Structures are given as structure tokens and as C-alpha cells.
Amino acid sequence: RGLEVLATIPESYDSSPNGKAFLGGAYLMNYLSLKQYDKVPSRINPLLALAADTTIDPFSRSRIHRLIATYYFHTNQYSKARACLIKNSNAFPKNVYRFGSIQDSQLWYKLDSAQGDFHSAFDNLLFYKTKTDSILSENRMSQLQVLGIEYETALKEDSIKLKDKSILLLTQQNSLQQANLRQANLIKNVTI
């Protein structure tokens, strides 16, 4: 389905380097997810040329290298996959582009495992798991904060409704007391 959608986008839709990188990366991602590895090689050189363009944003460059490294990994071209991942590891410090470095560490883990470098594979897997767990914890914490705020808001709304009911009840009691007082005054005046 993704390839059908991509086919409807004209080549001239976004002719900027970033637009071409996005579109080329989208094709590559679809081919990889569908395991249509035979369609990838014709797209690699144009994407690498785009990645070499200095006007392209670093995140697109990183994505291109990661997708190409993934293709090389799945086709057992481990040295080429390593070369692409090395380009990514130099592009950003790990704390700047967290999501990309996490994805890269997962690919590094798989690549090291496939080549028998289990110590490095373990380190990359540990980094990957630690960071994904950290992100999940952050997401859970933010969800808990949102729930806490919603709970406090509901409590305040309930408190306001309760106060409104109390005010209404007090107003009715006041009206009843005034009516009783008038009636008592009337009875007193009639008796006098």
C-alpha cells in the first residue's frame, strides 16, 4: 500500500535535496519492509549522492545511511553496513539525536552478533535496551503526570460543583428562614 501511495507522488513534487532524500528514503523503507531487496540497489547511489550534499539536513543524512546499512545487513554485506553506520556515528553525539542513535545501536547489535563480535553486540544491545526503557519510562511518567492533572482537575470541578450545591442549599435555607420569620411576624401581629 505504501508503494502505491508513493507512486502517486510526482517526481517534481519536492525537488529540493531534502525532499528527494525524504522520498527516496520512503521508497527504500517500503522495499525493506516488504523484503523487496532486488529493487534497492538502483536507489542506493542516488541516495548516497544526496547524503553527501552539504545542504541536506543531518537527520535526513542519518536516515539515509541507516536505511542503506539495513539493506546491506539484510543482504549479508556486513562491511558496507558497517561503513554506513560509522558515517552515522560521526554525524551526531549520542545525546543529540537520541532516536537515531538508538536505532543505530540496534543495527550495530545485530551486525556485531552476525559477525560474532558478542562483546560489542552486548554493549550495543545494553545501550539500545537502556535507552528504549528510558524513553518508555519518560512516556509513562508523562502519561502519569497527565492523569494526575486530569484527576486534580476533576477533583476541583467536583469541589466547585459541591460548593455550588452548598451555596444553593444555604440560599434555600435562608429563604426558608426568612419565610418562617415573616410567618412568625405575621402570626405575632395578628395575635396582637
Structure description:
It is a single chain. The protein has 7 helices and no strands. The protein is mostly helical and about 190 residues long. Helix 2 runs antiparallel to helix 3 and helix 4 packs antiparallel against helix 5.
Which key features would you list for this structure?
mainly alpha, 7 helices, 82% helix, elongated
Write the layout of secondary structure elements.
Elements: H1 2-7, H2 17-33, H3 41-52, H4 58-74, H5 78-91, H6 98-114, H7 118-191
Helix pairs in contact: 2-3, 2-4, 3-4, 4-5, 4-6, 5-6, 6-7
Brief summary of the model shown:
The chain is mainly α. 82% of the residues lie in helices and 0% in strands.
Radius of gyration: 33 Å
**What portion of the residues fall into strands of 2 or more residues?**
under 5%
Structural class: mainly alpha
Average pLDDT figure: 81
Helix content: over 70%
Number of strands: 0
| Quaternary organisation of the protein chains | single chain
Sheet having the most strands: none
Write the element-wise H/E pattern from the N-terminal end onward: HHHHHHH
How far do the termini sit from each other?
A: 96 Å
Number of helices: 7
Q: Low-confidence stretches at least 5 residues in length (pLDDT < 50)? A: none
